[in-house]
Fold:
Amino acid sequence: MPETLPDFFYSFDSAEVLADKLAEKVAGRLDAAITLKGKASLVVSGGSTPLPLFTKLSRQHVDWQRVFITLADERWVDTSDSSSNEHAVRVHLLQNKAAQAKFIGLKNTSLTAVSGELETHAALEAMPRPFDMVILGMGDDGHTASLFPSAERLPEAVDMQSEKSCIAITPPEVPFERMSMTLRTLLDTNEIILHITGEKKRATLAMALDKDDPNNMPIRYIIHQEITPVSIYWAP
Structure:
């Protein structure tokens, strides 16, 4: 990590402390949106890192029946599959007080993500926009959502002139076809949080903070843009 960290980088003593603070922050953002607009929208990500956050967030005092939740990306597998991001959200987030939230999944009954793209796009129309918060993760290769380096459709996915809210994309060397929000959609929010843990991710972030080719590390499309405020939350 460079000696001079960006002012949007926040470090916490542990992943649990980070999850506590971030759950409070998200709840505050949702509360403010509900007070202002009568509803709120939240985009979350899959993987193991956000699971403690999901559990803590599910217990926050929010008027959850006015909150819409969706995913930044999804594997094209059955939603009961343990590798499904929707499955993780339903098991860990849509519980306790948050069970009343309105969830909009990216997976539908189409056999492939390509054939299901239009239906997912239509489903996302129900999400209030701009989103109030988008919480992203980052892979060791610098991908975020399902914007993977060298993915065949990456140029289309990061095209800021695209009218698509989502895109079917198959990462190189990854077994699942996926559906991902496009870059333009991810940036259509009031705030982005990059939630990462561990020294390996910190090292990846150090490389991503260099303004080299974003196609090699698509997370650069998020942290170096000037459209939407970004905060990076990290813990060991």
